[in-house]
Q: What sequence folds into this?
């Protein structure tokens, strides 16, 4: 008896067959899978041709019995909003099929769905129809090399439905084939055990008795942590039952206080203590009982009572001769909360608890908690090692995270069991470490979002900036709802001043992503808190350091009058300790032209008051740039300020201030150039003389270069000759550091490119630099040294020789690989290349050298460091001048706008219409993307550029 397959045969799909040797017997046995693939079909809605092809495609897909297809119009009435309905359906789908007609382009709705697919790494099939328009869209170009997408072009709109269904089936078959051939590896059965924590044999530490089952039956807390980290509930097998315990139940009741903003009043501490009493000996229980009173006080925001209870617990623990580790654990709690109390009362004093910890000769060790945490860290290292050493040809399709969740749950339960406030609060850090570990292994949006959220909650600005730089998708994919969730998460902190501090950090970090309604609410709340802080005589001073950092992050979205008012209030309160922050904020974010006359006048008058105060104007000397900014914004309003600067800061007035604000550039600029030439000459002679080295407050060489580029200055031949000679000596004979010598190279390149007559007249000086290149080196002194490798100087010299017309292709080819992996050196080299290419609108590198630089740019664009990506993007934009680079440049620009942060997007938008090599299709795609970007500033810049183009 034979069998002939009559339907589709896959391991998860429907199949029917017939017996070929039956005489008159025919049987068809359709088989339908228990679980089907979820397909989302996306296209323009409400247009007949799209509606028809979507319906046909849905029918074709579902006829295979392998998948269910979602189209918005096919769903019935729902209590959900239309937006939530299709957005959640898309996020839950396994694959999305896009139907796009080149002639119609991509409307905002489809673009939003494309963004969601890319953000969540949802598999996608893109179909482009070129029936009426053959030219490819920007989106189609951007899909080249995409990790989670395939695309195909069809020549007839009617082909979309059949081709879409066929491609889906082919993809399923291919995946199963790769699984069978070992290219896709299942990891579900892998031995993923973390060393179990044994509570037996710990008697020598005099541990309180903790039931073994407490550390093994923690499924509820484990699932809670995994849901928070991953963003979805852990699935269960049909025959799987949860393992839980009494203390697991108490843990799950306490977690909402940590992660959902619930009040401590919702946790029945009395009943929890009854449960502890049944397990612990009487004296230890009494210590834990007092410690839980401290925990209650802490989460109620009463730090004074918290410290009182901790002191009582410490005294009782000593009186009853509790184990050393318990006493030290209480000391750690007491030390931490004493510091918090000092911050609240603006008092700074040593804590006796810290003194006692320091003087103790016995190492602090937590017998069970330390084992849990050590096991976790070992597993993190093992997982990262395995990821690094795994075969690049295998793909993992499953991994169990239960063990990690169980360890985290056990850590919380043990901390609660002992009443350890510090270790309860450390759960945020443990979760963050877990999220970071997963972020290193998996490219998942929820992990990035939670990492960002937890960094903000930690309150460390440097850490937040690091995540923004390392994971640019954070500032690219963040939605208004997710930004609001970060603001809400800050409410979990029970201590008022710390809560306000992290709210300030959060608002400055995500304020541009909030929708208008939520933003207005948050702004009103934050500004109200700032004004209340400024008007109170009992304010927590620690908050002050975060205010201008917060305002800097949302300044473009706030009223200039409001910002001016806050600055004036700082001056009224004479809060001079934050004047430096305020002056930098004014320089970067304040514009007198965009506020009311009354606000502008008030701000300038307050600045005049600071200038008039001998004590307070000392702060201006550390950050005086804001004076130049205000002067250039409104000369009539700042006349009095100008006079005060001349009176009280005469040296600054005659130097940098005059350089930045002069209106008579033709007369003043040559004088400044001569002054700087003399300073450079003197530095060449004195730097390193008799072993004496010094730093530079002003980068004279870089300043001269800026003058030559920005002021269209024409200097006399003697001045230019002296400048070239002196700057050449900086390279040849001075003992200056590498940064100064790189500035010298940039200036000499600028002259060679923009001042050909001066270059020709001094060609002998340039030739001397070429002939003596092996003698050019940097001083090795710790005062002026940097972490920039000397290889950057060699590369810089080759770029100078390139500007001179020398053939140094081989030298550059040999040198460039040496900077790979060296971040600071790469930043300096990329910056020098930018200075070369931006020294003129027409400058281009020789073709071979350009090819080398372009190859490196394609790598730098994917760097985890913003400065490198920023410089690489600027280089890429200048390379659009060469028509041969058109395809590469346009493709990369589209990719950058799709995947990079707000800084890179704004850079591209501002140069979009200044570069001839960017095609209209690319411009249209970038504008259509940025016009509806989630970030307020990107939308603002896009609008400004659009208006500027319209006015031209």
A:
């Amino acid at each position: 008896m034979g069998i002939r397959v009559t339907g589709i045969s896959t391991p998860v799909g429907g199949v029917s067959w017939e017996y070929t040797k039956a005489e008159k017997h025919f049987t068809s046995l359709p088989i339908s899978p228990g679980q089907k693939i979820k397909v989302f079909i996306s296209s323009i809605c409400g247009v007949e041709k799209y509606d028809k092809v979507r319906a046909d495609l849905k029918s074709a897909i579902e006829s295979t019995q392998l998948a269910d297809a979602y189209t918005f119009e096919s769903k019935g009435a729902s209590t959900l909003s239309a937006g939530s309905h299709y957005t959640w359906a898309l996020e839950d789908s396994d694959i999305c099929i896009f139907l796009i007609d080149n002639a119609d382009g991509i409307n905002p709705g489809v673009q939003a769905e494309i963004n969601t697919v890319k953000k969540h790494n949802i598999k996608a099939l893109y179909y482009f129809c070129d029936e009426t328009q053959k030219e490819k869209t920007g989106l189609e170009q951007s899909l080249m090399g995409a990790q989670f997408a395939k695309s195909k072009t069809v020549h007839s709109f009617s082909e979309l439905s059949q081709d879409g269904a066929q491609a889906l089936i082919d993809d399923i078959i291919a995946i199963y084939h790769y699984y069978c051939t070992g290219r896709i590896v299942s990891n579900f059965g892998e031995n993923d055990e973390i060393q179990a924590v044994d509570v037996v044999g710990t008697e020598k530490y005099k541990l309180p008795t903790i039931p073994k089952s407490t550390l093994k039956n923690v499924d509820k807390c484990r699932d809670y942590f995994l849901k928070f980290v991953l963003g979805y509930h852990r699935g269960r097998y049909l025959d799987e039952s949860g393992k839980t315990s009494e203390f697991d139940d108490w843990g799950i009741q306490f977690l909402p206080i940590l992660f959902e903003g619930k009040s401590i009043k919702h946790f029945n501490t009395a009943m929890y203590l009854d449960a502890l009493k049944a397990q612990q000996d009487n004296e230890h229980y009494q210590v834990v009982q007092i410690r839980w009173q401290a925990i209650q006080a802490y989460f109620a925001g009463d730090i004074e009572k918290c410290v009182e209870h901790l002191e009582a617990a410490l005294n009782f623990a000593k009186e009853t001769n509790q184990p050393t580790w318990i006493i030290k654990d209480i000391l750690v709690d007491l030390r931490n909360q004493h510091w918090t109390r000092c911050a609240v009362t603006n008092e700074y004093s040593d804590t006796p608890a810290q003194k006692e910890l320091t003087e103790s000769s016995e190492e602090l060790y937590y017998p069970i908690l330390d084992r849990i945490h050590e096991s976790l860290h070992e597993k993190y290292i093992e997982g990262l090692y395995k990821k690094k050493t795994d075969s690049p040809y295998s793909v993992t399709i499953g991994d169990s995270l239960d063990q990690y969740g169980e360890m985290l749950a056990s850590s919380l339960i043990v901390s609660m069991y002992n009443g350890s406030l510090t270790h309860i609060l450390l759960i945020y850090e443990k979760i963050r470490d877990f999220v970071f570990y997963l972020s290193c292994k998996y490219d998942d949006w929820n992990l990035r979002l939670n990492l960002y959220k937890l960094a903000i909650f930690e309150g460390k600005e440097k850490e937040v900036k690091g995540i923004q730089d390392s994971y640019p998708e954070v500032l690219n994919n963040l939605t208004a709802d997710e930004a609001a969730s970060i603001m809400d998460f800050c409410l979990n902190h029970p201590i008022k001043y710390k809560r306000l501090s992290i709210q300030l950090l959060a608002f400055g970090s995500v304020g541009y992503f909030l929708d208008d309604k939520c933003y207005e609410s948050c702004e009103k709340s934050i500004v109200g808190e700032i004004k209340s802080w400024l008007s109170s005589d009992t304010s927590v001073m620690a908050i002050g350091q975060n205010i201008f950092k917060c305002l800097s992050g949302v300044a473009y979205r706030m009223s200039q009058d409001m910002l001016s008012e806050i600055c004036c209030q700082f001056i009224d309160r004479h809060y001079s300790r934050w004047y430096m922050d305020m002056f930098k904020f004014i320089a970067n974010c304040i514009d007198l032209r965009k506020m009311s006359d009354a606000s502008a006048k008030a701000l300038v008058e307050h600045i005049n008051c600071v200038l008039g105060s001998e004590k307070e104007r000392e702060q201006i000397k550390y950050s005086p740039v804001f004076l130049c900014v205000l002067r250039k914004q409104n000369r009539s309003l700042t006349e009095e300020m100008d006079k005060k600067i001349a009176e009280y800061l005469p040296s600054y007035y005659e130097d940098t201030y005059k350089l930045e604000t002069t209106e008579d550039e033709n007369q003043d600029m040559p004088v400044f150039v001569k002054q700087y030439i003399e300073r450079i000459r003197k530095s060449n002679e004195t730097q390193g003389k008799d072993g004496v080295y010094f730093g530079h407050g002003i980068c004279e060489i870089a300043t001269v270069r800026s003058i030559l580029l920005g002021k269209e200055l024409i200097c006399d031949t003697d001045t230019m000759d002296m400048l070239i000679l002196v700057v050449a000596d900086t390279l040849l004979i001075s003992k200056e550091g590498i940064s100064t010598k790189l500035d010298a190279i940039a200036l000499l390149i600028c002259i060679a490119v923009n001042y050909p007559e001066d270059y020709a007249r001094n060609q002998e000086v340039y030739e001397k630099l070429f002939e003596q290149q092996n003698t050019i080196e940097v001083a090795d002194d710790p005062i002026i040294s940097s972490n920039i490798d000397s290889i950057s100087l060699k590369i810089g010299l080759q770029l100078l020789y390139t500007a001179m017309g020398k053939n140094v292709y081989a030298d550059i080819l040999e040198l460039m690989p040496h900077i790979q992996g060296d971040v600071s050196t790469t930043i300096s080299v990329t910056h020098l290349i930018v200075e070369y290419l931006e020294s003129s609108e027409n400058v281009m590198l020789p073709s071979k050298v350009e090819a080398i630089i372009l190859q490196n740019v394609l790598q730098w664009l994917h760097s985890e460091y913003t400065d490198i990506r920023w410089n690489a993007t600027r280089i890429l934009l200048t390379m659009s001048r060469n028509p041969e680079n058109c395809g590469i440049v346009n493709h990369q620009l589209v990719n950058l706008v799709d995947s990079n942060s707000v800084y890179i997007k704004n850079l591209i938008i501002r140069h979009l219409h200044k570069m001839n090599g960017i095609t209209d299709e690319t411009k249209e795609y970038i504008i259509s993307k940025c016009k509806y970007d989630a970030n307020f500033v990107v939308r603002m810049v896009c609008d400004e550029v659009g208006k500027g183009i319209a006015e031209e």
In short: The radius of gyration is 33 Å.
